[in-house]
Design goal:
Helix content: 40-55%
Strand content: 5-15%
Number of helices: 16
Distance between the termini: 41 Å
Length: 428
């Protein structure tokens, strides 16, 4: 290499480093500390900007200026992973979707800040932190619990003479579902053939999971097999039908349900804003109930889906960034705003009984104001799920292989599909 090329190379390296370090928190001339935040959701960006405003009102001696960048889903996660692997260029605060979070916990020392000492776990739904924890250390805080619930179309159930509160177990759901089909000609429920939301809540509430506690594949457990056999039975016997479009987020599905296509759907509580945004005709018709149990006394929910917000350890202001983020998402005030601004079920259960949770908004207008009374009743039954390095691949295998083969193309039995998928998972 010539002397000139060495000089050029060194100059370029310095320029790149300068560009990276400019992304980190800086002290502004105004006395505010600049913190950068990456997300892939506009709603999350607005939520954190509101939190920065209230933080500044309450902390006059620790003012922050939050610079937010909203990126595409894959772009943001890829860019963050490269920054963390290279050791520079990461933001001070970043969202990481639950299905991707395990990718950022690999290795002995994840490049994220431990948050244990800042979290008031006595008032938080503990199981909700499982996907963001490694070796007892918590690295992320979710926006919501994502409690699995069942949404019933009461108008359809009334026409069939079925009381939703008589549906206590999944056997009741099948039995009374057949009556709904007979009396109304409408399916009791819809299930997904290209996603995991119809399957995951049902195994999670039994203590089943995609991975075991050591992070190894557990797709072929007897709980998982029997649960998928039950879902297949619902479809085979006409109690349920495959969701139009294959999943519960398709335009075809929303149109189908908006016209009272089926009597129920089970999804996490965050699905409420899909009803309000895409199924307006059902306003006042949908009631929210705990999931049926598999046996008397069993758990009636599980915490699913979500996005963990983390603090990259390479930042200049990790302490301030950590305290601000935990305030935004895990304080009682922040948890209340999780509901009032985002329509999500907060991770702090003591926020659920606050009068603000019953104040009129588009969700209480649509579903009524008793949602959090129901959640308080089942708060100790919202089971957590296991995270690990293999979780992203496990989720993809369930979506693309298992559900599609069993319910879509119907080319494999539940046992065959789950055994095959687990072999693929554990071979990697």
């Amino acid at each position: 290499m010539t002397r000139l090329s060495k000089i050029i190379g060194a100059t370029l390296a310095l320029a790149v480093m300068a560009g990276f370090t400019g992304c980190k928190g800086e002290k502004k001339g105004s006395g505010k500390t600049k913190l950068t935040f990456w997300t892939f959701q506009n709603a999350h960006a607005e939520f954190m900007q509101d939190a920065a405003k209230t933080w500044n009102e309450q902390n006059p001696n620790e003012q922050i200026e939050l610079s937010v960048e909203v990126l595409g889903y894959d772009e943001m996660h890829n860019k963050l992973l490269i920054a963390l692997q290279s050791g520079s260029g990461a933001p001070d605060i970043s969202d990481i979707e639950i299905g991707k979070f395990a990718n950022f916990l690999k290795g002995k020392n994840p490049p994220l800040v431990k948050l244990n000492d800042l979290l008031d776990m006595d008032h938080l739904i503990k199981g909700r932190f499982n996907p963001y924890t490694k070796n007892g250390n918590i690295y992320g805080v979710d926006y919501h619990v994502g409690a699995a619930v069942i949404y019933y179309n009461k108008e359809i159930l009334d026409a069939a003479g079925v009381n939703p509160d008589d549906i206590v177990t999944w056997d009741d759901f099948y039995r009374l579902g057949k009556i709904v089909v007979q009396k109304t000609g409408k399916p009791m429920a819809t299930v997904e053939s290209t996603e995991h939301w119809s399957f995951y809540p049902l195994i999670a509430q039994q203590g089943g999971d995609f991975l075991d506690k050591d992070g190894n594949g557990a797709l072929d457990s007897e709980i998982n097999i029997k649960t998928l056999e039950y879902i297949k039975k619902l479809v085979d016997d006409g109690v349920a039908q495959i969701a139009p479009g294959g999943f519960h987020h398709s335009e075809e599905y929303w149109s189908f349900m908006n016209n009272s296509g089926a009597a129920s759907i089970w999804m996490p509580l965050w699905y409420m804003n899909r009803f309000t945004d895409y199924m307006p005709k059902l306003s006042g018709k949908i009631i929210v109930r705990p999931m049926p149990v598999w046996k008397k006394g069993g758990a009636r929910s599980a915490g699913l889906g979500g996005t963990g917000t983390a603090i990259p350890s390479q930042g200049k202001h990790t302490d301030l960034a950590s305290r601000f983020m935990v305030y935004a998402k895990a304080s009682k005030e922040g948890s209340i705003k999780t509901w009032t601004l985002l329509g999500f079920d907060p991770i702090r259960w003591d926020a659920w009984t606050d009068p603000a949770m019953k104040a009129p908004n588009k969700f209480t207008a649509y579903f009524g104001d008793g949602i959090f009374d129901m959640l308080v009743e089942i708060k100790d039954e919202i089971l957590g799920v296991n995270g690990g390095d293999k979780f992203p691949e496990a989720q993809t295998l369930v979506q693309k292989n298992v559900m599609f083969k069993v319910l879509g193309e119907r080319s494999a039995s539940p046992r065959e599909a789950l055994v095959e998928a687990n072999k693929i998972l554990n071979s990697k």
